[in-house]
Amino acid sequence: MPTYVVCDLEFTSWPGALEQDWAGPGQLREIVQIGALRLDDAHTVVEAHEALVRPVANPRLSEYFTGLTGIGQEDVDRHGVHPAEALGDFLEFCRGQAVLSYGNDMVVLGENVGWARARGDEVKSGFLDAEFLSIRPWLNALAPATKRINTGRLWHVLGLPRPFAGEEHSALFDCHSLAAAIRHLCGRGASLPQGIL
Predict the structure, then answer these.
(1) CATH number where 38 lies
(2) Please, what is the Cα angle at 11 between 16 and 81, to 5 degrees?
(3) What CA–CA distance (Å, rounded) separates 18 from 136?
(4) What is the DSSP pairing of strand 31-40 with strand 3-11?
(5) Beta bridge partner(s), residue 134
(6) What is the rounded CA–CA span in Å between residue 13 and residue 10?
(7) How far apart are CA 68 and CA 184, in angstroms?
(8) Which of these, 19, 47, 51, lies nearest to 35 by C-alpha position?
(9) 9 in a domain, yes or no?
(10) Structural domain includes residue 163
(11) pLDDT at 125
(12) pLDDT of 130
């Protein structure tokens, strides 16, 4: 059965960081949460992956980030794993698959793998046999109302039922929102870009 992966990342942020492209002093896009779903050719979820990650350069989460995502310092301190472990596990989940995100998640992933390796950490699985692609241009072209919408609100803008428990800016919820949008558009006759399935 052919499958593909949709993923979403939540990473450290501060007020104005997005507008400044994280150019402020000490601001890095360190991954704090990874969400991913493996979907079959009917765009149905067959497996899920989720991880909390302890940031290294900025181990204290900003109030802005916590307000946005609902992820608190205690959550990360208790349940977060080391970045190299989380990245390796995620990349293993993606092995041999097309991996779709709604934006630049693959750039952020690459930054975090680079920082881990620069620290001397081993990231198992590497980028072998996985093809990363932003599905945003495809989705926005088919559903122009989504152009200014974040991943977690896709389901709402498309008039779909809430796809999963939780709220936007939670990585796994955002993955379910993206999967619901893909399933909806393909159910109306659209085809995913070539090479995904």
Answers:
(1) 3.30.420.10
(2) 150
(3) 18
(4) antiparallel
(5) 101
(6) 9
(7) 27
(8) 51
(9) yes
(10) no
(11) 82
(12) 77
- β-bridge partners, 40: 3
Provide the residue count of the chain.
Answer: 197
Residue carrying structure tokens 């991996």:
99
Chain segment 112-156, per-residue pLDDT in tens: 999 999 999 999 887 667 789 999 999 999 999 999 999 999 999
Q: Which domain holds residue 78?
A: 3-134
Residue with tokens 């881990």: 116
Token pair of 112, please? Answer: 């975090």
d(CA 22, CA 182): 30
User: For 12-33, what is each residue's pLDDT tens digit?
Assistant: 999 999 999 999 999 999 999 9
Single-letter amino acid, residue 153:
R
Total domain count for the chain?
Answer: 1
Q: Say if 191 falls within a structural domain.
A: no
Give the whole-angstrom CA distance, residue 87 versus residue 124: 8
Q: Which of 118, 48, 56 is nearest to 81 (CA)?
A: 56
Q: What would the two tokens of residue 51 be? A: 């991880």
pTM of this structure: 0.96
DSSP secondary structure string for all residues of 50-103: EEEB--SSS-SPPHHHHHHH---HHHHHHH-B-HHHHHHHHHHHHTTSEEEESS
Rounded distance between C-alpha atoms, residue 3 and residue 42, angstroms? 9
Please report whether residue 126 resides in a domain.
yes
Q: What is the pLDDT of residue 129?
A: 73
